[in-house]
Design brief:
Length: 189
C-alpha cells in the first residue's frame, strides 16, 4: 500500500514521516519524497492518526487520485532539480513520463488543469529557485551551476533567470551579498 504526502520535499520531511511511522508502529518498506510504501494495510484509525500527526508538521496526506498524481509530478521535478547530479541527462518530459509510468501528454494536461500552469513553467520556476539557492551559497560559479542543472549554456540560464526574477544572476548574487553584509553590520551594532 502506498501513501502520498503533500509538502514532503526534503530529507528532513522524510525523517519526520519515518519517526511518525515508527512511533505509530506502522511497518513500512521505504520512504521517498512525497510517498511511503507500507508493508501492510492500515486501519482507518491508524490512517487518521498518522494524517493528524503529519499535519502538525505541515505535511498533508492525499486522498484523491488527481492530487496524488500532481504531487508525484511535483516531487519528480523537485528530485530532478535538487539531485540533478544523480539524474540522467534526458529531457524532462521523457524522465517524468518514464518515472511515473504515464503518457506525458496526459500528465501535462492533468497538471495544467489542476495547477493552472504548465509543467514547463513549474520546472523553470523551480530551477530558478535552485539557481538562487546555489548563487547564495557562493560555492559554484554560473558556468558550474548551468552545467549542474543541465542548462544548454550559461547564456540560456542567465536569460531565463532574468526573465523570471528581473535580475541577472550576477546582480542577484551581489544583492544577496549586500544583504548579508547589512545583516552582519546591524548585528554588531
Amino acid at each position: 500500500m502506498r501513501l502520498y504526502i503533500k509538502y514532503m520535499v526534503s530529507l528532513r520531511c522524510k525523517m519526520l514521516v519515518q519517526e511518525e511511522l515508527e512511533r505509530l508502529e506502522i511497518p513500512y518498506g521505504f520512504i521517498d519524497l512525497g510517498m511511503v510504501e507500507l508493508l501492510e494495510e492500515i486501519s482507518n484509525t491508524q490512517r487518521n492518526k498518522l494524517k493528524r500527526n503529519l499535519l502538525r508538521f505541515g505535511l498533508k496526506m492525499h486522498d484523491d487520485k488527481k492530487s496524488i498524481l500532481i504531487e508525484r509530478i511535483k516531487n519528480t521535478i523537485l528530485e530532478m532539480i535538487n539531485y540533478a547530479d544523480g539524474c540522467p541527462k534526458m529531457n524532462y518530459s521523457e524522465y517524468i513520463s518514464e518515472k511515473l509510468n504515464y503518457d506525458y501528454t496526459y500528465l501535462a494536461n492533468t497538471f495544467s488543469d489542476v495547477k493552472g500552469i504548465t509543467i514547463q513553467q513549474y520546472i523553470i520556476f523551480n530551477k530558478i529557485e535552485r539557481v538562487k539557492e546555489l548563487l547564495s551559497y557562493g560555492e559554484l560559479n554560473l558556468t558550474e551551476i548551468s552545467y549542474k542543472l543541465h542548462y544548454s549554456s550559461m547564456a540560456h540560464l542567465s536569460g531565463q533567470f532574468k526573465k523570471v526574477t528581473g535580475f541577472s544572476p550576477s546582480n542577484y548574487r551581489e544583492m544577496k551579498l549586500n544583504q548579508e553584509e547589512l545583516k552582519l553590520s546591524t548585528a554588531v551594532i
